[in-house]
């Protein structure tokens, strides 16, 4: 591809780089052979760079692409194919996100509950274990902070990923709508 996937989906350079790289690798890995949605988008970008208005660019690119067998149905089908790849990546991302939540947040919350129980037991049993109680309270505070930091980090990653996913999805869906309404 002469025009990068990044240029197709993040021409304004506004999306989260890590999420974008992840999603674009999935798209590139699953790139269909032949002239499909991605090559059509590249052709549109080339025509737009030459100053051709978008309506004319779409019709011109489609006329050229039809000479190598691209039909409106194949174009829309291939755009749907890439949307499905993004949906699969989103499912995998959510699975990984849940594992991160379990290992970095929920497990610490379970630790917190366990430590609180120990504190209560120590208060009831022995007054002289004040030092051990202070140590456990310090661990609780640390666990809360760690869980909060992990939660925030995971949330930020999720937000960036979802923003990037949405931007790419909206771009493809907009193209599908436009192609569907403007192509014969």
UniProtKB/TrEMBL annotation:
It comes from Membranihabitans marinus. This is Uncharacterized protein. Residues 112-153 form a coiled coil. The keyword Coiled coil applies. It comes from the Bacteria. Keywords: Coiled coil.
């Amino acid at each position: 591809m002469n025009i990068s996937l990044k240029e197709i989906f993040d021409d304004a350079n506004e999306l989260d780089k890590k999420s974008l790289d992840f999603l674009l690798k999935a798209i590139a890995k699953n790139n269909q052979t032949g002239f499909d949605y991605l090559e059509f988008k590249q052709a549109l970008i080339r025509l737009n760079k030459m100053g051709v208005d978008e309506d004319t660019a779409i019709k011109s690119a489609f006329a050229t692409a039809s000479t190598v067998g691209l039909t409106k149905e194949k174009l829309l089908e291939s755009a749907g194919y890439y949307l499905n790849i993004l949906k699969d990546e989103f499912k995998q991302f959510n699975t990984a996100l849940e594992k991160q939540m379990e290992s970095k947040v929920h497990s610490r919350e379970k630790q917190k509950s366990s430590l609180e129980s120990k504190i209560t037991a120590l208060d009831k049993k022995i007054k002289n274990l004040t030092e051990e109680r202070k140590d456990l309270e310090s661990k609780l505070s640390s666990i809360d902070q760690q869980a909060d930091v992990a939660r925030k980090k995971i949330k930020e990653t999720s937000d960036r990923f979802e923003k990037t996913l949405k931007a790419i999805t909206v771009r493809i869906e907009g193209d599908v709508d436009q192609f569907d309404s403007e192509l014969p």
